[in-house]
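Q: I'm building a small set of examples for a reading group on sequence design. Run inverse folding on the following structure and report the sequence directly after it, with nothing in between.
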């Protein structure tokens, strides 16, 4: 959102507070704005409408972020994409282009390792992929949100 959206944003948050029997101070509203201003206003309003139907209590910014996370591909869905890419032999022409998937595949031995893996042993690779996927997804989220405090490894140095 941009500063011009702040009035509409405050109306939504104040409406929530009123419906949930809460009162918000100006500092509390500023904290909500700071935490949620990276949302698109239309998406924020849609999320707010959903949370109004599903939250018993006043939603926190975490409730909004949980909705955002629910919209992402799961680790299992990501592994299915990797397996399909390996099975089609498309990996010989390059990676999927989905950075998180491609990085996790490299961590478990590459697309070639998936391609030659016996189907009855594929679950071992999947378990390792899922572990890496979860850890990298969380790390990337923090690195993106707080670039000033995150230190990135340089693998090309």
């Amino acid at each position: 959102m941009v500063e011009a959206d702040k009035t509409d944003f405050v109306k939504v948050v104040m409406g929530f507070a009123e419906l949930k029997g809460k009162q918000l101070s100006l500092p509390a509203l500023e904290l909500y704005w700071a935490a949620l201003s990276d949302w698109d206003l239309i998406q924020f309003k849609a999320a707010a409408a959903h949370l109004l139907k599903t939250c018993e209590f006043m939603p926190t910014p975490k409730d909004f972020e949980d909705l955002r996370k629910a919209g992402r591909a799961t680790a299992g869905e990501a592994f299915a994409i990797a397996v399909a890419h390996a099975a089609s032999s498309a990996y010989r022409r390059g990676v999927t282009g989905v950075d998180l998937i491609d990085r996790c595949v490299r961590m478990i031995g590459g697309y070639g390792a998936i391609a030659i893996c016996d189907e009855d042993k594929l679950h071992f690779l999947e378990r390792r992929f899922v572990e890496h996927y979860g850890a990298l997804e969380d790390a990337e989220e923090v690195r993106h949100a707080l670039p000033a405090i995150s230190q990135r490894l340089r693998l090309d140095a």
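The radius of gyration is 21 Å.
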